[in-house]
Amino acid sequence: MTDLTRRQALLLTLASGLPVVARAGRAQAQSAAQKITVALDWTVNTNHIGLFVARDKGFYGEAGLNVDILPYSDTGAGTLVANRVADFGINGTISLFTQKTAGADLKGVYAVVQSETGRLVFNAARSEIKSPRDLDGLTYGGFGSAWENAVIGTIIRHDGGEGKFGTVTLGTSAYEALTNGSVDFTLEVSTWEGVEAELKGVKQHSFVYADYGVPNEHTTLISSSDAYLRANPKSAAAFIQATRRGYQFAVDHPDEAAALLIAANKDALSNPALIDASLKALIDGHYLRGENGAIGIMDPARMDAIGDYLFASGILRDADGTPAKSRPDFGGYFSNAYLG
Question: Start and end of every SsuA/THI5-like domain (predicted)?
Fold first, then answer.
């Protein structure tokens, strides 16, 4: 800090009418707070609401933390965490398992949702699609990942079909393509794209993964690295527990939580009705808080089941890109210890 900056700071303090000592004490307290960075997995949405609530309601501050929620970038949150660019990150269970198996330093520490939010959807006008086996030979629009192909194949075969379908990689354009009939079906997040479609009056039918042989999963997690967790166990626990307070608050006070999320992201969240409806879906569907009252807890049986599915499907690959030859110890992929 230059002398000029010091003088400017002093003049600003005096002009505010606050004692210099009080302002200095506040600055010292702020600088003493543990800095933590969190990377998002996508543009801001209701899955992230607990982070913004915890920050803007002061839960992080009360825990002695100064949390910086990093804007979404093209680099995945798991990659940022594994390379120590971010301390924590929002990521999917699938990305955690695939990256961890390939050698990335990642560990799940919080389950944002308690069960699968994804589903297979198609236009309601397609009356000839009565069950998953009717998808054989049709065209899927999606993101081009091995996980998608495995899930769709499992769903169709579980219903007695062959599991053969065409694929067009479209990214998020798949939803528009589905609406205009360019593709026959896609996968969507029921609590976001599904809610948005309903608000727009788009009529859809869907198949739930778990009804057709795909293990239920937590879908979205918060992960850190073993390196960070070993070096900062107290800060990690403080962050996870304050974050849990944020999600708990969102469940108990959805209107205020939604308003906080929107106020913090005015440019990105221009449709309040979508935020309100999405948060309602997350709460009513027992995603943020399970029917058993669980918030943030990763179910070991559920984590093992999805890990086994990924391993059996050949999706888990070693650092050299070859399918994992032996089943990994999935117990080392996550920990509930930081929930307190």
Answer: 45-257
End of a domain among 212, 230, 247?
Answer: 212
Domain hosting 283: range is 34-115+218-339
| First-to-final CA distance of the chain | 40
Amino acid found at 228: Y
Structural domain total, the chain: 3
**Looking only at Cα atoms, what is the longest distance across the chain?**
77
- Both tokens assigned to 319: 């650092």
CA torsion, ordered 82, 287, 257, 43, to nearest 10 deg: 40
* Pair 111, 123 in one domain: no
Alpha carbons 225 and 213: distance in angstroms, whole number: 31
Are 165 and 135 within one domain? yes
Can you give the pTM of this predicted structure? 0.89
318 with 182, same domain: the answer is no
The length of the chain is 340
Alpha-carbon distances of 21 from 10, 26, 27, 143, rounded to whole Å? 11, 9, 10, 56
173: domain CATH number is 3.40.190.10
Rounded-to-integer distance, Cα 38 and Cα 84, Å: 11
Q: Decide: helix, strand or coil at residue 33.
A: coil
Helix axes 20-32, 3-16, angle to 10 degrees: 120
Which of 212, 234, 263 corresponds to the end of one domain?
A: 212
The rounded distance, in Å, linking the Cα atoms of 140 and 182 is: 10
Q: Give 35-73 pLDDT, tens digit per residue.
A: 999 999 999 999 999 999 999 999 999 999 999 999 899
